[in-house]
Amino acid sequence: MTTQIQSSSITVAGSALPAMPWEERPTGSNAAVWRYSGNPIIPANLLPNSNSIFNSAVVPFNGAWAGVFRCDDKRHQMNIHAGFSDDAINWRINAETITFACDDPEIGRLAYRYDPRVVWIDDRYYVTWCNGYHGPTIGVGYTYDFRTFHQLENAFLPYNRNGVLFPRKIGGKFAMMSRPSDNGHTPFGDMFYSESPDMEHWGHHRFVMAPAGGWQSTKVGAGPIPIETSEGWLLIYHGVITQCNGFIYRFGAALLDLEQPWKVIARTGSYLMGPEAEYERVGDTSNVVFPCAALVDAPSGRLAIYYGAADTVVGLAFSTVDEIVDFIKADPL
Ligand code: BMA
């Protein structure tokens, strides 16, 4: 038996974003998540020296939109760049990488930076990313204006990836999901929850979820900033399966307890979206969709999901909180 809930009963925390990108589900489709008709929205060569622009994060900013973009250059150095947009679809990305002011040169020194997430908490935008420090770990910084950036201490020891902050303090503490990993193309990965009183010291680590069968059998990692709903935190996450020709990255979603987010209420059995379009199937790493951000219009529950496609370009997809919660409940793990 499947559980159906009244869509209208779900409330979503956050702002109204009536100007965010939106398209209705195409006629004849029953997909829970559907692609923007103009995909990909950011081409690999948007910058003069970019090899690829993909796993990237966007937020509302000053009545328009700003973001932090993963750009790998033609030396294949991985770094992050600030960008701006009037419609959240057409982006102007700075050709220069982000420069962080940092009190400690040991921490501020660049090795590599990739897969940013951005979130507004209290009074500023926080940025997390996969930061090279004797292997990958979670870099943390903040900005008020996307022009000046400050870098804080790394959240964790190496090796770790997919550090994703919650959009408010929980139990009075900053809260972050992450995935302990290795120094290579990690063939494992569970998600953990950690909390911090000051955005520097992280502890109270709690196990959240492990890989399961099928599409999410090799590793799982948090995607966009979790969305607060009356059903729990809605966490869109990527899941990976190892096939003869390598990894395939898809994404699903879970509902987490609002006050104790390490407690999983429900989780998708089937994936929500996987590589299907040519720009997701073919690229520097074929068969990857990797979501790093979602804009949410709280009153309508509309979602605009930004994802890297085939480690080469940025795609945009749409859904609603109701659709995804219904999907989780109708086909739970
Ligand atoms: C992960 C990260 C992502 C990348 C994905 C697929 O380990 O490196 O940046 O999109 O692999 O290659």
- Uncertain residue segments: 1-7
The radius of gyration is: 18 Å
Alpha-carbon distance between the termini?
14 Å
- SS content category: mainly beta
| Small molecules bound | beta-D-mannopyranose
The helix fraction, in percent, is: under 10%
Number of strands: 23
Description:
The chain is built from three helices and 23 strands. It is mainly beta and 333 residues long. Strands 2, 3, 4, 5 and 6 form a five-stranded antiparallel sheet that branches. Strands 7-11-10-9-8 form a five-stranded mixed sheet. Strands 16, 17, 18, 19 and 20 form a five-stranded antiparallel sheet that branches. Residues 1-7 have low confidence and may be disordered. The protein binds beta-D-mannopyranose.
Feature tags:
5-stranded antiparallel beta sheet, 5-stranded mixed beta sheet, 3 helices, binds beta-D-mannopyranose
Compile the SSE list and pairings.
Blueprint (H helix, E strand, L loop, with lengths): L33 E2 L14 E4 L3 E5 L2 E10 L4 E8 L6 E2 L6 E3 L2 H4 L4 E9 L2 E9 L3 E8 L5 E3 L8 E6 L8 E7 L10 E6 L6 E7 L9 E4 L4 E3 L2 E12 L2 E11 L7 E4 L10 H4 L7 E9 L4 E8 L3 E8 H10 L3
The structure holds beta-D-mannopyranose (BMA).
Write a brief caption for the model:
The protein has helices at residues 105-108, 278-281, 321-330; strands spanning 34-35, 50-53, 57-61, 64-73, 78-85, 92-93, 100-102, 113-121, 124-132, 136-143, 149-151, 160-165, 174-180, 191-196, 203-209, 219-222, 227-229, 232-243, 246-256, 264-267, 289-297, 302-309, 313-320.
